[in-house]
Amino acid sequence: MEIRLKEWQKQDREGLAALCNGADRTYLTGRMPYPYTLEDADWYLNMVQEHEGQDGIFRSIRVDGEIVGNISVEKKKDVYGKDGEIGYLLRGDQWSKGIMTEAVRQICEAAFENLGLIRITGLVDAPNTASRKVLEKNGFVLEGIMKNAVTKDGKIYDLCIYGKLKKTFL
After folding, report:
1. What is the tens place of the pLDDT at every residue in 133-146?
2. Based on the structure, what is the number of domains in the chain?
3. Which of 7, 133, 152, 160 is deepest in the core (most CB within 10 A)?
4. SS3 at position 33
């Protein structure tokens, strides 16, 4: 199994739409439209093209060439400009195979190298134990828990704040 991160291309619009329409949304942000149209994919791909390498690293996750996920680190602004926030999703049939753990490793390396960051933050709903484990396996440390910080689909969750520091600053 070959796990690679690839820059998004305009021709990936159908694969991106299929990925987002099939995503388990239990713990995803509400800002991702549903249904996810080709126009939504075009908007995202245009945004990626505009921001890639400037204030973010945006990648498709591919296993043996097939798009199975999405991952990004976006640089924060103002006094938080040396911090980036990681976000990701993986198709459900690819869970528990080590794919996201490897994708997070790869994107953190690229983000530290190319965005001038000294830390990366991961925000995870407390019950999302799989995502928490992915971050922990990549050296992210639980820095705090915001109580009752997330409301989604009538449920209230605590929000776990994870951080990973660039090695030169440890």
Report:
1. 999 999 999 999 99
2. 1
3. 160
4. coil
Residue 17: strand, helix, or coil: helix
Residues 6+ apart with CB under 8 A from 133: none
Sequential DSSP letters for 109-131: HHHHHHS--SEEEEEEETT-HHH
**pLDDT single digits (tens) 71-117:** 999 999 999 999 999 999 999 999 999 999 999 999 999 999 999 99
Q: Which residue has the tokens 């000294």?
A: 118
Q: Using CA atoms, how far apart are residues 170 and 68, in angstroms rounded to an integer?
A: 33
Task: Extract the tokens encoding 116.
Answer: 């001038």
- What residue numbers bound the domain in which 45 lies? 3-169
Sheet of 3-7, strands arranged across: 3-7, 56-63, 66-75, 83-90, 119-125, 155-165, 141-152
CATH number at residue 130: 3.40.630.30
